Amino acid sequence: MTNFNWPIRVYYEDTDSGGVVYYANYLKFMERARTEWLRSYGLEQDDLRDQFGIIFAVRQVQIDYCLPAKFNDELVVTAKVNKKGKASILFEQSITRQSEILTTAKIKIACLDVDSFKPVAMPAEIYKKLTGE
Description:
By secondary structure, the protein is α+β, with helices and mostly antiparallel strands. The protein has a single domain, classed as Hotdog Thioesterase (Thiol Ester Dehydrase, Chain A). It contains three helices and five strands. It has helices spanning about 25-40, 45-50, 125-130, and strands spanning about 5-10, 55-65, 75-85, 90-95, 100-115. The protein has a five-stranded antiparallel sheet with strand order 1-3-4-5-2, with helices on one face. A hairpin with a 2-residue loop joins β4 (about 90-95) and β5. The chain is elongated and about 45 Å long. The two termini are about 15 Å apart.
């Protein structure tokens, strides 16, 4: 499967007192890339909630911080689907600056019922869009 790439720039508000991106903000950058990945399929998260009764929520994160990003850096956040299940998606994500890998992560997303917050299979229409099956 191919990488989805989302360019971002580091703003002052993203940095800590040392002038580098605060560690939790890398997860925010990855979240934005996954949202844009969904949009690339014509899917909006509020529509999934309102029309299909589902939400996607982070179930598990494994992250490795390799190098720091700094104020004003231009970065690329990738989102690559490693595995698609009926009720979950496993992403491999990275954040790079030019050819330098700054952060890598494996993030498992669960499909949940909006009312019970329990795992449910993705509606067939959504699953088909995301998998091509």
